Structures are given as structure tokens and as C-alpha cells.
Amino acid sequence: MLRLQHIAKTGEKMSTPALQPLKHENKPATDSLAAAMQALKLMLGDRYSVSESVRLVHGKGEAWHAPQLPDCVCFPESTDEVSRIVKICAEHRIPVIPFGVGTSLEGHTIAPLGGVSIDLGRMNQVLQVHPADMDCRVQAGVTRKQLNQAIRDTGLFFPIDPGADATLGGMTATRASGTNAVRYGTMKDNVMSLTLVNAAGEIVQTGGRAKKSSAGYDLTRLMVGSEGTLGVITEIGLRLHGMPEAMMAAVATFPDLGSAVATVMDTIQVGLPIARIELVDRDTVQAINSYSKTDYPVRDTLFLEFHGSERYVEEQVELFVELAGSHGGSDLEWARHEEDRNNLWQARHDAYLAILAKYPGTQGFTTDVCVPISNLAEIIEFIKAVLVDSSLEGHILGHAGDGNFHIVFCIDPEISAQVDEVYRVNDLLIDKALEMEGTCTGEHGIGFGKLKYMRREHGDEAIAMMQAVKKGLDPDNIMNPGKTVTA
Amino acid sequence: MLRLQHIAKTGEKMSTPALQPLKHENKPATDSLAAAMQALKLMLGDRYSVSESVRLVHGKGEAWHAPQLPDCVCFPESTDEVSRIVKICAEHRIPVIPFGVGTSLEGHTIAPLGGVSIDLGRMNQVLQVHPADMDCRVQAGVTRKQLNQAIRDTGLFFPIDPGADATLGGMTATRASGTNAVRYGTMKDNVMSLTLVNAAGEIVQTGGRAKKSSAGYDLTRLMVGSEGTLGVITEIGLRLHGMPEAMMAAVATFPDLGSAVATVMDTIQVGLPIARIELVDRDTVQAINSYSKTDYPVRDTLFLEFHGSERYVEEQVELFVELAGSHGGSDLEWARHEEDRNNLWQARHDAYLAILAKYPGTQGFTTDVCVPISNLAEIIEFIKAVLVDSSLEGHILGHAGDGNFHIVFCIDPEISAQVDEVYRVNDLLIDKALEMEGTCTGEHGIGFGKLKYMRREHGDEAIAMMQAVKKGLDPDNIMNPGKTVTA
Hints:
Two copies of one chain form a homodimer.
Chain A: H1 2-11, H2 30-44, E1 48-49, H3 52-58, E2 72-74, H4 79-92, E3 96-99, E4 116-119, E5 126-130, E6 135-139, H5 144-150, E7 156-157, H6 168-173, H7 181-184, H8 187-190, E8 191-197, E9 203-207, H9 219-223, E10 232-239, E11 241-242, E12 246-254, H10 257-269, E13 276-280, H11 282-292, E14 300-308, H12 310-326, E15 330-335, H13 338-349, H14 351-358, E16 363-366, H15 376-388, E17 394-399, E18 404-411, H16 416-435, H17 454-473
Parallel strand pairs in A: 2-4, 3-4
Antiparallel strand pairs in A: 1-2, 5-6, 6-10, 7-11, 8-9, 8-10, 12-14, 12-15, 13-14, 13-17, 16-18, 17-18
């Protein structure tokens, strides 16, 4: 607690806009808030909390943004309860902030205007599984690992894997993706339908179970990525995929980042349907070895996975080996068995923690640009040149097959020079990505942390269009205010 | 002309709501209209027309809905011109109806309130092709065949194939799909970005060229399927796909529809990545043979296509033959060479015309439900039982791999008993599909013809949400009014 209070306090002195507390002019009047809180307490009993420690957990994400606490936290157990909570908030015009397990990296769950955090963690039932149609329906608080455990015996799996064991509600709300997206798409491609509670507290069903539909506006896709600003997602219909007959994971190392990236580009361009192709630079490999007690060669590396029938995986592997070889790839290490594959991917997923462990006492700041694949080598070279002249040390890793990569910086948010520098570098990176018709965020979302890039990326007209949608669906701006799209 | 006027006249007597002319209470005042038309004429010169024959072409689609003519037709050549046209219409509150090549089946292009038809046919430039990133950018008037011709030398192709050589603008606006969707998805999955002109006449860019993004609301997906009711789409960024090394088409026949459907379900459920799997019932095969001078065995049939490497196609074919065999599939006829494949698919695509040719003087009415694949056999059995007791003869064909199929009825729209019966049967079919969590339209869209099913499919709350979006983006209801979502 002490440490966090300290950050919040020193945060006021900082020069970077995204770190300053939002102005609280729009905060609801104290008596409205008190009335709403009274009604919620009455409704939920011990599933309502104003404890500071509970509010703190809900007023921050995994990244370094200074926590901003909600006034209370509710723990509903059904869509109907969420509806009743939002109705109370709507009546009193109190902010509503949905919360999954708090793995957000862009401050989606912080409460700049206070209000009510709705923790969906108790809504964790897998409601339906339809093996023959390869789909399922879950409550928003189910995590991706929990879902995969629940459907283990069906021969199906849910592929989207952002690393963290996030809730499917949170993944839907942020349009998450991760290592498998190169083959299986993002949440945009795998959410079929939703139950949501709108800003008036009404329960809305979107989509259905047909594989396709041309019946009106795609409300499901509008909600995917809306980050709680258009409604609270309470149930999700998801597409599942057949567990491949064979899976082969591998690690391949390269003389330099450029060769690794060239291999990624070739792999995509020949249409090899690779399931995962992850770029990890040599410094990050070193951090992984140290953190995960592995002994990968300390070189620029690709972590790979191939899915298909036995014969087809073999064919893909042959083709990949040829492509990698032509760019100096070597040290190919193969993992066929589930345990070996899991170890390999756990090491890759722990890269963020491994990097943080190198710099004790710091917090992570992660960039997230995504560009057309033909620009990937150029933008990585560009940012490496920027970093040569910077005081920052960056670790590069990411979902290279989609043109999406992260640079992880470990900084002390109390040192404003470090904060300023990290923003300067990220600004340059994002400008370059936008120049290449890319995006400031491939998968982490906008939340609070990337708000200032929205207009630069989309232009005034598209922002006005988003604002009109927001205004139409949440006229009193109570749904996760201050995030994604602001007035 | 005579015939069409006659239909419009007799239409007034008919009992079915969708056939009655819309009430014209909301028609713009005559002087506003005259002022707008004067301004448009001045702006466009001979690219502006009030000729009745031109207006008639633009006031109808390919289906049987009685034509309703716009007051004039504009032929812009740039997004900027579309913007200027819409600004004039916005100023005078005149309806704006976008038009591609008029292959719509649900009356999307008719003008129930009159107004200005914007024909995008002259905006037919392929603007950019990026082979390395497998994407391109086209003007809205480019047709799918034109695009595939233009990119022939790149080794890439655009897969979405609704049969008709529709414009990519129209396909985007209706969220079209077709025979390849089972493998390559629908327009929802293949549109990356858009340029559109909004209801105020402003030019808006949505999306970018990155393979994924989590930056704010997915305006691109909101526009896909919005049928001209939220803006005029003028440019489209599209994902392309690598031309497979090998393609194999085939025809397989079955003892009955149930066996063919069971084969489709097995194929999808084992995860065979089939590129096309089209169901055609025996009566339709007979019609095709007669129309296209082919000699397919007159049995319930699947038209198939496999894509991949040589070895992988071989593996898929082996697996399929095994599955089909277990359901009595036989007479497998293979087409490997491009010309043979093209002939096979041309015959399949001409099925609609072949059926119409069987009943001279009639017009086609096509159903379009889509259900979860495990329900496909049941709903086809259900509707066949309904048809046993009906005066109608229906031909069944469709994209069975997606759970989407059509029944084509050939009717004389002047005989109200036939019209009533076709609606009665479609109502039963749609109720059944919705009971199965399916949709009233897998790919043809809502337009004007399926408006009455929207509330039944989505419920009051989702319709209210669509209305709020429509109101927010088109407050004066000038964009294709009376379609998709009405107030």
C-alpha cells in the first residue's frame, strides 16, 4: 500500500499527460454516489465491498499506470444481477467499470472518476458446449485456461492465447489475440454472439450460432474491442477449433534480428499456415534462460508451432526448415510431446516476467504497434536505431507473423525523465507505424494509456463517428468513462 | 416497361406487407427535391440522369420485388464527388441510395421514398495491390471478377464468390459470402479498411493495413453489412489469399439429401479444410443439365473443391472419399484443370438461372436461412415436409458447409395466392431456423425484403441498439431509408 500511495502522490508532479490524474469535474455528486452505494450494498450484501485493498486490486491493471480506485466493488453472479447493478448506476449516473482478472496493460480497469467496479469473476460457468457445431457459450468470468480444461475431452480447443490467463470477457472487450492469432485470428474472428448489459441496464443478445449472417448491423463486432465503454459483456458465444492431429513446436535461432524477420515474412508470404511464429530477441532469450532455467542459445530466435495432420505437419516443417536455412537459421530444436511444447510456450509466455526480473523494482512499459508484414524489418531497424541514442534498454518480442511486436521497457515510474523518454520513444515508434498504415495497438487495446494516439491513428472524422456511436449507446457516459473514445 | 408497371399496380392489392409500397409520408418536399436535383445536374452534367429507363435499372434488384424508382441517378467518378453529392442531399434531406451493379436479392437498391441513386460503377479502379502483404485497395465499383483478373499475375486471389459478378462495394455493404466462405470466410473476414462518405457528406477512413488492431471501435465491421444505411462505401481495403499450389474440384452424388448433408457435417466436424462444399438437390441437377448442357447424374449432389499443396490436396481427397463412401456417396467425378473446374463451377453458379428457365415467365424468390451445422439435416427435412403439403415446388441448393442453404421458388408475383404461399413457407422456415439459433439470412441481407424478420431474430433490445447506432450516424435518416433497420 505504502508504495502505491507514493506513486499516486508523486504522479501529480509528472509532466506526461497520460500519467496525470484525470480531472474529476465530471465526478458524480457525493449524494448520488452515496445513494447508489447504499442500494448496491442492500442488494448484494457481502458481495459488495468498499475495502481499500479490494478497491486497489480493482483500480489497477498489470502495467505501471498509477492506480485510481473505484468507490466500491460488486461481485454479481448472474447477468440479471449485472443488469440490476447497472440500473442503479444509471439512475444515479455513476461510472460502471467492468473487471475480469485485471491483466489489462493499458489501464482499462482503473477508475479515474471513481464509480462502481463490476467484478465478473464469479460468473465463471461454461454454459454450453456444442462439439458437433464446434462452438460454446461461457460466462464472462471464465478464463481461457478454464475453458480449455472444460472442453478437453471434446477434441476441441479455444486457440486465442494472450499469454496471461485472462477472462474471456476481458479478452472480448479488448479484442485480444496473442501467439496463435497468425493461424486462428483474434477475438474478432472467434466471438459469435454476446449477452451484454447496456448503459440503461437492459439485457441485450447479439449474434447467434449460425456460422454467418447478413441480418443487420454487426453488434457483436461493435462490442468486441469496445473495452466496457458501450456495455458490460456478461456471456460470450465462442467458436472452437478441432485439436490438430499433430502439433510440433520448435525453436530456431538466427544470426541477427533481420534474418529472423525475413524468415517470418517468407513464411507468411508462401502461405505456410503456421500456428505460431514468435520473435524473441537475444537479450530476451538471455532473460528467459535466467528466469525459466532454460538453456536456449542466446541468439535472435523464433519460437514456432505447426498444426495439422501428421503428414501435413511434416510437410510444413520441411518447407519451414528450407526457408529458415536460406536466412541462416540454425539450432532448430523440436518439441513434439505435449509436456515439451508446454514448457517451451511457458518459457515464451514468461518472457515479460523474465525481463522484469532483470530490473528489480521497476515496472513494465510495453509498446504494441502492428504493421503490414512487409514493413516489419524496417520498423524494427528504425526503432533499434532510436534506442542506440536513448538511455532506455528495450527487449523486443512479439507476434511477428501478424506484424505485431512489443518492446518491453523496465522503468521506475517515479523518475520522470524515464517516463518522458519511454513516451518519446513510443511516440516515434507509433508515428512510424502509422506512416506504414499500421496501428498503435495490435492487441493490448487503448484503455487509458493509448488514448492520445486515437486521433492520430483514425483521423477526426472516424473519431467523430466513434463518438456518435458512444453517445447513441451511452448518452450519460457512465460506461467506463475516460477510456477508448472520449467526448 | 409495361410489364413492370403492371406489377407495381397489382402490387397494391396484395395482402403481404413486404409487397405493399411503403407509405410516402416521409418523402421530401417537392421543392427541396427540385433544388437538390438542380444542384446535382449542375455538378455532374451528363453523369446525371432522370431518364425513366436509367431510373428503372436503379430502382430494382435481381429478385422479384416491385421496382420503386429513384428521382435521379448520379454517376460519380471519385470519393470527393460522392461527398459533394451526399452534401447536397443532406442539405435538402433527400434519400441517398448506393448502387453497384444491381445484383441484390432483397431490394437493397429500390427507392421507396424516391431520392438519389448513386451508381458507383464508374469508380472501378484497382487502386493498390500489395503482393508482399497480401492485400489490395479498390474503388467500390470494381467487381470481384475484375479484381481477380487484375491480380492474376501476383499469385494471389480474392476468394469471396457470391455467384453473381457483384461489385466489391455491394458485397461489402451486404456482408456477402458464397461458395468459398466455408474456407475463406465472408466479407466480414476479408475487408480490412474502408473509405466511406457519411450522412453529412464527410469522408471517413476506417481501419488500416495491419493484420489486426485493438484501437477503438471496429467501424469497418460496423459498416460491413450496413447496406448503405450508415454511409456510402467508396473504397475498400481487402485481404487477398495465396493461389493454392493445387486445386481439385469434384462432384459426388448421394442416394438422398440426408446422406449428402451427413457427409457435409462429417467433413466439417473432422476439420477437413474444404474450400467449397455445395449441396444441390436432384431437381436442381436436372435443371442444370438442361440449362448448361451438362450430364451430371440426376441425384442429390455435392459440388466440392479442395485447395492446398499437391500432397495436402491428395490427403484431403482421400479423407473425403472415405467420408462420402460411408454415406453412400458415389459417381465421384474429378476436375483438376482450370478449365474443367471453371465449367463445373459455372454450372453450379448458373443453377439459379437454370431453375428460372424451367418456369418461363416466373420470377425467383430465394430463401436464405443459415443454421448451426448440426441442425442442417433436420431443417431440410422439416421444410421438405412442409413443401409436400404446399402448392409450391422448391429447389434446394446452397453453401451447406456453413449451414446455409437456399430454396428457390419460381412464382408469378401477380398471383397473390403464390406470393402468400411463398411467404407462409418462408415464415415457417425462418421460425425453425431461429428456433435453432440460426439466422433469417446467411448472405443475401435484409434490404427491404427481410425487414419484417429483424425483430423476431434479434429481439427488441438489439433492435433498439441498432436504431441508436443508426440515429447517431444518420440523424435525418437520409441513408438508404426504409432498409435494414427502420425507426
